[in-house]
Design goal:
It is a single chain. The radius of gyration is 19 Å and the shape is globular. The protein is of the alpha/beta class. Helix content is 48%, strand content 21%. Helix 6 packs across helix 11 and helix 8 crosses helix 11. Helix 4 links the parallel strand 7 and strand 8.
Length: 302
């Protein structure tokens, strides 16, 4: 299959590299020094104890996606609409788009621009980062949960899942992908905004009494908003959010990584969305509102 990766960073670069290794034709879209390094020396993936170097098509031109069958949509949520509009301009209606992004608001934006009948979504569990231009560092085991937003794509969803399995990536399929995305958002909204504001790792949040309490309150707010709109996040999910974090004590959540690098943070998808949805449905989110307001202030001075 000819596959395009929109956003060949920590997520897209990793999955694209493994698919290329498995024998697929992969085009990587990137920019800046990361793109320059890949054009010069290929894409290097350090995964656990292995070193993988991938040659391929590295480009900053969306036109190189024109004949692709599958597009991995891996850009930051801040670039969702602009990138989707570029893809729509290609007039390649047969290309199915699989979003591997954070949050639960990108699917609606993509459906409005590209159409829901060509859209797959995945909850992505991956510990990776761009170590330096052209080099991605990964640890642990990658996992994907993939679903279709329209029944007409179920068979293609299963085909895509098989592609990832052939690339030795653990994959599950689901008929309710948005529930899985909300489960992931529960962890992200609990830890990402607080880490970005405090510059604390997951472990430091877990071990500091007041930060831990703030994280727990934020988690409760996400659950109340979700439950009010019919997303069943129960008490078990609350305890699992913190129990599972014991394996990521040294982890710097993605928003903190972006802040430290001077990049735009995914404030809206991982925090603002919950605050605004709460306002719409009459659920108060005072902790997340405070984090959101402070992060917006920081962003204006980035």
């Amino acid at each position: 299959m000819k596959i395009a990766v929109a956003g060949a960073g920590a997520v897209g670069g990793y999955f694209g590299a493994l698919l290329k290794k498995a024998g697929h034709d992969v085009v990587f879209l990137a920019r800046g020094k990361h793109l320059e390094a890949m054009k010069k020396s290929g894409l290097v993936v350090k995964t656990n104890d292995q070193l993988l170097t991938i040659d391929g098509v590295f480009t900053d031109k969306i036109e190189d996606f024109a004949d692709c069958e599958l597009i991995l949509f891996c850009v930051k949520s801040t670039d969702t609409e602009s990138t989707a509009e570029q893809i729509a301009s290609l007039r390649n209606d047969r290309a199915v788009v699989l979003t591997l992004q954070n949050g639960v608001d990108n699917e609606e934006k993509l459906a409005q621009i590209l159409g829901g009948k060509r859209l797959l979504s995945a909850a992505t569990y991956l510990s990776s980062h761009v170590e330096e231009p052209g080099v991605i560092k990964h640890s642990g085991r990658a996992k994907l949960v993939i679903g279709a937003l329209d029944e007409s794509l179920i068979s293609f969803r299963d085909k895509v899942a098989d592609l990832f399995r052939q690339a030795e990536i653990f994959v599950k399929t689901t008929d309710d992908i948005m529930l899985d995305k909300w489960k992931k958002l529960l962890w992200n909204a609990t830890f990402n905004p607080l880490a970005a504001l405090s510059k604390a790792t997951v472990g430091e949040i877990m071990e500091h009494k007041e930060l831990r309490k703030t994280a727990e309150n934020a988690c409760r707010e996400v659950m109340r908003v979700a439950n009010k709109i019919g997303i069943p996040l129960d008490e078990e999910m609350f305890y699992r959010t913190f129990a599972n974090s014991g394996a990521a004590l040294k982890h710097k959540p993605s928003m903190l990584q972006d802040r430290l690098k001077g990049k735009r943070m995914e404030i809206e998808s991982l925090c603002g969305f919950i605050v605004k949805k709460g306002r719409q449905i009459g659920v108060e989110t005072p902790v997340l509102q405070t984090l959101y307001s402070n992060l917006l202030f920081l962003e204006t001075h980035r």
